[in-house]
Amino acid sequence: MTTVSLDNIRNFAIIAHIDHGKSTLADRLIQLCGGLSEREMKAQVLDSMDIERERGITIKAQTVRLTYRARDGQDYVLNLIDTPGHVDFAYEVSRSLAACEGSLLVVDASQGVEAQTLANVYQAIDNDHEIVPVLNKVDLPAAEPERIKQQIEDVIGIDASNAIEISAKTGIGVPEVLEAIVTRLPPPRGDRNAPLKALLVDSWYDAYLGVVVLVRIVDGVLKKGMRIRMLGAEATHDVESVGVFTPKLVGWPELGPGELGFFTGSIKEVADTAVGDTITEERRRADAPLPGFRPAQPVVFCGIFPVDAGDFEDLRTAIGKLRLNDAAFTFEMETSAALGFGFRCGFLGLLHLEIIQERLSREFDLDLIATAPSVVYRITLTNGDEIELHNPADMPDPVKIREISEPWLRATIMTPDDYLGAILKLCQERRGIQVDLSYVGSRAVVQYDLPLNEVVFDFYDRLKSVSKGYASFDYQLTDYRVGDLVKMQILVNAEPVDALSILVHRSQADRRGRAMCEKLKELIPPHMFQIPIQAAIGGKVIARETIRALRKDVLAKCYGGDVTRKRKLLDKQKAGKKKMRQFGKVDIPQEAFIAALKMDD
Amino acid sequence: MSGGDPGFGVYIHWPFCAAKCPYCDFNSHVRHDPPDQARFARAFAREIAATADRMPGRTVSSIFLGGGTPSLMEPATVGAILDAVALNWTVAAKTEVTLEANPSSVEAERFKGYRLAGVNRVSLGVQALNDADLRFLGRLHDVAEARAAIEIARKTFPRISFDLIYARPGQTPAAWSRELGEALKLAADHLSLYQLTIEDDTPFARLHQAGKLQVPDEDTAADLYTVTRDVAAADGLPAYEISNHARPGAECRHNLVYWRYGEYAGIGPGAHGRLRLPDGRHATEAERNPEAWLGRVERYGDGLIVDELLTREEEGDEMLLMGLRLAEGIDIGRYQRISGRELDPEQLADLVAHGMVERTVDGRVRATRAGSFVLDAVVADLAA
Q: What is the mean pLDDT of residues A463-469?
């Protein structure tokens, strides 16, 4: 295997909205380059986890090395990198994009540009990518390639006149995409003789190989047997194997500048590898790390408890296993009067939280209760001590508190002009402070400082809904600021439900309290008795709803032939009850603990 | 009414109707050509014999011919089936023999024949006492015919009952109260009063889903049920079960077998049974399609497609969900013997505190009036 010249390497990502055909196009490219035989070509090779497939989101970055003989008669190595696609994983996306020089921007020729595309395409532009617009699904009757090209130019501000029109499904135009990758994207640059400098793109745990680290070599060469150093983690490891994905995992003698591949070594846990870290050779170190490294920092916390207390050990095992593969997720044990033993877990954002929760219940078959998500508060006590609060239930007695600070972020929102009013209103409602407002064509770019507390839960959902999905959103944590924060409790049938208590800004308390009571009224099924639901701050009730008692709930006819059916219904009811938690004699469904926080307004 | 031996009932299912009613999800079939009644009668007899082979020596406390529309049977067919029951088990002279009938003039002409065949109780599907609602419910008779049929039935049979369906679209509690008052004048000593239920996969369900059929909301349904219980009780027919009213002593013995969780054989297409066999209680279910059932019986002797041994927990749940429908409730000791478990004392105490159930001095637990309105929730609490 000879060394590939830098000029014959192209590294690229595919940017697309869900359902615009990213995976189908990737499959086509792999197929045309002979990466997999017909038989191995299962639909959508790249999304390996069930949850990824169902939600159309990628959680882990993946790469595929393709060999392509171009029309100029030369062989090229094309590295396709598939990136996560959600704001929770914005940092991971930025590192994946930093690992390549260009992007295919795939846009559905009838649907046009959508929000998720925008957030990622701007990231790609930030990473100095050359962008090749690709219009997919041009074979469909609703396709309007000319209109969508214009839209790409207006909205994104890039030249779309030479966009490639394809149908990933039928294969039309796909060879032109390969050719464009070669002719329009720049080759990587790098110095083979310089000390090794590689970007840690992602890593995961493999049952057979241990931790697999995905890297992009910038300078130098990575070989088996080498002792490497991670500059950020300040750790050294011996490289046991080096390879690439075709998409099958294949051993390779070495990775040189511009190449994407993996290595394995004496690394125990994914937590020992940080996305964005710089890898160099221990004996001959690179002088400076690559720019942009940021250790993963959980920003949202919530409690996760087993529905059945007997499942605690299973939950501990399951969480441990997930953590093996997901270093961004943290956990520590927690006990709650109402919920028993569980874990306080930290996440990158709400989607991350939902994914972990779903994987726990699906892959490990656990019934779980997750408490309301909260951010990390800093509390200064009257005696001068400072504590970090991860859980509203642990809030000290208010008389002992001097002040509470909360994390703030700077949000950048891009939106078509039409939705600007609604978005400004949303930001104001969420205690936002406007920093800047400017225009790019007909798109507004607005910057706001917002408390994370107001964003963490449903801001992104609300933003999508008020902008019909057209606004894109990105944020960066900035600082901690003192705020007038109070603990709001929820009482169900006069009993406080700790898992539902939240810290809230005093100015928001009435609104949040009312919204939560209304939501719980919808979520808690009627019982045989009336159920008061109250929101209270320090014993003072600020909102109240009542769930009416059931009035009529009995099957009219039940004879000999109905018993079996009725018994099966009863079994279902019993199973449903096992998934609820009792507070003050009231069965609260699991989903209520999270859904209660979502506001519809 | 006593809570003694629940008895042994034989249920016979005649699966044919002249037309399907849009609310009905029972196992009924409409056939262009009339079925070969003699052949069906032979199959019924054969399945009765096969069932008796598995559970010999029983004394039959009741026989119930339901459907479908059993009043489409020739009296001779009914006679042949009853003879088969008597041939295989012991049938006492005063055994209750009920036949469900449509109150049409054609069918009323056969009443005499049924009586001679051994039927001593009819249950008439009157359903409503105004013609517009009868048409809405898809019934083939009108009010005048129904009144006449009730009259003939009262003269022909020692015991009669009829059914009404309430909570029809737009029906107010006041209107229902008037209609029920009229019904009570026509009634002898038993009435079945059902809230209209939208069953899956029926024409009504499709209309309901399309928003073209509105049924009263939960509050109105509760008000209508209040009227039902109060008006009937004031006239001497208290509810002895959620939807069944009788003068004390006139309860349907056959249905009591179900609710008291006794033993019953299900004969005919789609019929269900609960047989107490040496290894425990079996739940049986026959093939629903009449012709397929016929084929099975002619080949194998019975038409069963389900015959499973119930676990004690399942038996306990069934006893609970049937028994609490009765005003008399269930015997706690018997529940423990059958299910091998105790009613959760905490749940029971909660339900008592909420006024949903009460315990009696003779060791029974029963739903209160308030509990009867929300019995499904009560049972779910107790069974959990």
A: 85
Question: What tokens appear for A516 in the block?
Answer: 């939560």
**Is the pLDDT higher at A263 or at A599?**
A263
Contacting residues of B for A584, CB less than 8 Å apart: none
Tell me, what amino acid is at B295? G
- Alpha helix ranges (H) inside B21-118: 37-54, 75-88, 105-108, 111-117
Please tell me the distance from the alpha carbon of residue B184 to that of residue B180, in angstroms, as a whole number: 6
Q: State which amino acid sits at residue A7.
A: D
- For the record, the structure tokens of B339 come out as 């299910």
Q: Give the tens place of pLDDT for each residue, A431-458.
A: 999 999 987 666 788 999 999 888 876 7
C-alpha A161/C-alpha A147 separation (Å) is 11
Contacts of residue B9 in chain A, CB cutoff 8 Å? 560
CA distance B282 to B273: 8
Q: Are B198 and B204 in contact (CB under 8 A)?
A: yes
**CA A438 from centroid of its chain's CA atoms:** 28
The pLDDT tens digits for A39-63 are 555 544 554 444 444 444 445 667 8
Calculate how close chain A gets to B275, using CA atoms only, in Å. 12
For residue B258, give the nearest of A566, A491, A313 by alpha carbon: A566
Q: A552 and B221: CB-CB below 8 Å? A: yes
Point out the residue among A528, A556, A563 whose CB comes nearest to the CB of B374: A528
Q: Tell me: cis bond preceding A342? Omega within 30 of 0 counts.
A: no
- Cα–Cα distance measured from residue A381 to residue A302, given in angstroms and rounded to the nearest whole number: 23
Q: The tokens of A197 are what?
A: 């400098």
* Percent of chain B residues past pLDDT 70, beyond the cut: 99
How many Cβ atoms are within 10 Å of A540's Cβ, its own excluded? 7
Among the residues of A403-527, which ranges form H helices? Answer: 420-429, 452-455, 459-466, 506-523
Q: Which of A548, A558, A578 to mutate to test the interface with B (most CBs of B within 10 A)?
A: A558
Q: Is A376 helix (H, G, I), strand (E, B) or coil?
A: coil
**How far from the centroid of its chain's Cα atoms is residue A195's Cα?**
34
Judge if pTM exceeds 0.95.
Answer: no
Partner residue facing B384 (CB), from A563, A566, A574: A574
Which residue in the set B196, B266, B372 is minimally distant from A554, CB to CB? B372
Question: Could you tell me if B310 and A564 are in contact, meaning their C-beta atoms sit under 8 angstroms apart?
Answer: no
Q: A530 to chain B: nearest residue by CA?
A: B354
Which of A554, A555, A557 is closest, CB to CB, to B373? Answer: A554
Q: Which residues of B touch A561 (CB under 8 A)?
A: 11, 27, 266, 270-272
Q: How confident is the model at residue B120 (pLDDT cuts 50, 70, 90)?
A: very high
Pairing of strands A102-108, A164-165: unpaired
Residue B2 confidence (pLDDT) above 60: no
Contact at CB, B242 and A577, closer than 8 angstroms: no
For residues A272 and A233, is the Cβ–Cβ distance under 8 A? yes
Chain segment B65-85, per-residue pLDDT in tens: 999 999 999 999 999 999 999
Least confident of A266-280, A501-515, A572-586: A572-586
pLDDT(B280) > 90: yes
Instruction: State whether residue B353 is helix, strand or coil.
Output: helix
β-strand pairing of B159-166 with B190-195: parallel
**Which tokens go with B336?**
């423990």
| Strands A164-165 and A130-136, bridge-based pairing | parallel
Partnered with residue A293 across adjacent β-strands are: none
B264: three-class secondary structure by DSSP: strand
Chains A, B: CB contacts under 8 A, how many? 103
Distance from CA of A585 to the nearest CA of B (A): 9
From the list B225, B243, B266, the residue facing A557 with the nearest CB is B243
Token pair for A572: 């279902």
Given a contact cutoff of 8 angstroms between Cβ atoms, the answer to whether B203 and B165 are in contact is: no
- How much is the ipTM here? 0.93
